[in-house]
Amino acid sequence: MTTTTAAKAELLRSLHVPGTPLIVTNVWDAVTARIVAGAPGVKALATASHAVSFAHGVEDGEGLTVDQAIAAAGVVIGAVDVPVSVDFEKGYSPDAAGVEANVARLIAAGAAGINIEDSIGAAKAPLFPLEVAAERVAAARRAAVSTGVPLVINARVDVLAGGGEWDDAVARANAYLGAGADVVFVLGLGTEELVSRALAEIDGKVSVISNPTSVPLKKLADLGVSRVSFGPGTLGLTLAHLQAAATQLTALGEYPAELGFEY
């Protein structure tokens, strides 16, 4: 398992290329993992904690226990052959030692990468003090080193989404990269100007989340972003189609063509 997971982690890292970003359509269970992994061009997957939590009937923000979160990740990982990056929220521990232990367990379950957040609760504010947040990233890197798996750490910066200041966001991004993150996931980069500024001031690879109001994907690639994800948006997309189909069928309407989709 370690050798296979290590190889997947190396592959996942190689897919983070500025200008040719890794596009990850977020998944939350075995069937969504298989469907997305089977789409042309897909080379890696990422889970979304919001979607995983809601699929289990609990709120996002570590509504799952660490055991449940690792088990849910294992279901996704075991369903596909491509690398899987797991949204591991805050690491399911109040301290860095616990983060290190939990990340080691997640790697043992086959995770090739993780997201780890710097906000304390379910909201985007308040945040852990910068030094504390950086130490939590370093703890995740120590877990990777101890297991021999070059885990891809996508360290989330919640400053802007939580109403904080630009300089703090940049300082945190660079601190997390210095602590062992491979890429920083900066929330709140909603315009081309903000994306460009982040890429200019952050000393490493940048990941963003997108939705229909975001900078277009081709422009994000042109600017030099390394990774784009969609978080709970893919769950919303799926549920919107399901609800629309249910409405059409209940009204004795035409059969939606997707009703014949073979999975």
UniProtKB/TrEMBL annotation:
The keyword Lyase applies. It comes from the Bacteria. Keywords: Lyase. Signal peptide: none annotated. One of its GO terms (molecular function) is lyase activity. The keyword Lyase applies. This is 2-methylisocitrate lyase-like PEP mutase family enzyme. It comes from Conyzicola lurida. The lineage of its organism: Bacteria, Bacillati, Actinomycetota, Actinomycetes, Micrococcales.
